[in-house]
Amino acid sequence: ATPTAVMVATGVGATHGILIKGGDALERVQKVKYVLFDKTGTLTQGKAAVTSAKVFNGIDLGQFLTIVASAEASSEHPLARAIVDYAYHFHFFDGLPEAKAGAQNVKGVNSSSWLYDALDFVAFPGKGVQSVINGKKVLVGNRKLMAESGVAVFTQAENYLVELEENAQTGILVALDDSLVGVLGVADRLKREAAVVIEGLKKLDVRPVMVTGDNWRTAKAVAKEVGIHDVRAEVLPAGKADVIHSFQKDGSTVVMVGDGVNDSPALAAADVGMAIGAGTDIAIEAADYVLMRNSLEDVITAIDLSRKTVSRIR
Ligand code: ADP
Ligand code: MG
């Protein structure tokens, strides 16, 4: 494209909150064959909320939630924030969200004084967290995390997990001293425009794909809701770039849309990386496009804009 065409397109993009980092990326977008979407925070709102908590061995629910929140307090993950928020409300208001309005009246509510000290905190990307609380080893995460520590997921827990996952929720397992003690269900709603945008991409002859670190059952349930048929699940953060390369093998142009710190290798590996939303600085840095309005509609706008710009110069 001529410098003028690029300048015009960049200006049009900017009016939609679409930042385009250079003419090369702008030209590559019109050849797109696959758009790969991260799930959490990209297709979904990224506002995860705990929907249920189940304990198995007679441990007090409040005590259980405080331990789990203490273990997650140092994690930046959206799941961790959902858990801490839920436990906090349970702790101060017996879990009643209606009581939220009174939060400012409760002493100590803005401090973390209600949490236990978590020692030796470790985060395992794509798996969960580990620490030591009140002298006990605490694990919070998925099946992979439990399997690596040899924690047995007994039938009752597994059945509950499957039920959550079939309902498009993420089940989070909790173990104390390598014994499973409870499961939390976390839900994250689809962005309102998601299904319409997926439909729109198909009409443009572009194939939508979901890539996620979440488990297969949840991933498939969410994909079905949004109308995506091609799913890659249980992909560790480091593996997302490999997934991109597999789609590029036959020379296809791949756009990756993601929001998280985990997505930056994939954003960099794609022919065009699009960081969506407030994003993390590192995702924005790795991307060729930044979709500032956090709306998936701008993926279609970006493709339209590129196609129009390139056809105008030909
Ligand atoms: P996504 O690709 O959907 O953004 P991630 O790669 O960040 O997902 O995480 C994948 C899975 O790893 C989560 O669905 C969850 O099961 C587990 N996980 C990661 N971090 C945490 C955490 N802090 N607490 C509990 N589970 C976690
Ligand atoms: Mg994400």
List the helices and strands and how they pair.
Elements: H1 3-15, E1 18-20, H2 23-29, E2 32-38, H3 39-43, E3 49-55, H4 61-72, H5 78-93, E4 118-124, E5 128-133, E6 136-141, H6 143-148, H7 155-166, E7 170-176, E8 179-187, H8 194-203, E9 207-211, H9 216-226, E10 230-232, H10 240-248, E11 253-258, H11 264-269, E12 272-276, H12 281-286, E13 289-291, H13 297-313
Parallel strand pairs: 2-9, 2-11, 9-10, 11-12, 12-13
Antiparallel strand pairs: 1-13, 3-8, 4-5, 5-6, 6-7, 7-8
Helix pairs in contact: 1-13, 2-13, 4-5, 7-9
The structure holds adenosine-5'-diphosphate (ADP) and magnesium ion (MG).
Magnesium ion binds next to helix 3.
Give a brief outline of the structure.
The protein is α/β, with parallel strands linked by helices and 314 residues long. It has helices at residues 3-15, 23-29, 39-43, 61-72, 78-93, 143-148, 155-166, 194-203, 216-226, 240-248, 264-269, 281-286, 297-313; strands at 18-20, 32-38, 49-55, 118-124, 128-133, 136-141, 170-176, 179-187, 207-211, 230-232, 253-258, 272-276, 289-291. It has 13 helices and 13 strands.
Care to describe what's here?
It is a single chain. By secondary structure, the protein is an alpha/beta fold. The protein contains 13 helices and 13 strands. The strands form 2 sheets. It has a 7-stranded mixed β-sheet, with helices on both faces. It has a 6-stranded antiparallel β-sheet with strand order 3-8-7-6-5-4. Strand 11, helix 11 and strand 12 form a beta-alpha-beta unit. Bound molecules: adenosine-5'-diphosphate (ADP) and magnesium ion. Magnesium ion binds next to helix 3. GO terms for molecular function: ATP binding; ATP hydrolysis activity; ATPase-coupled monoatomic cation transmembrane transporter activity; copper ion binding. This is HMA domain-containing protein. Keywords: ATP-binding, Copper, Ion transport, Membrane, Metal-binding, Nucleotide-binding, Repeat, Translocase, Transmembrane, Transmembrane helix, Transport.
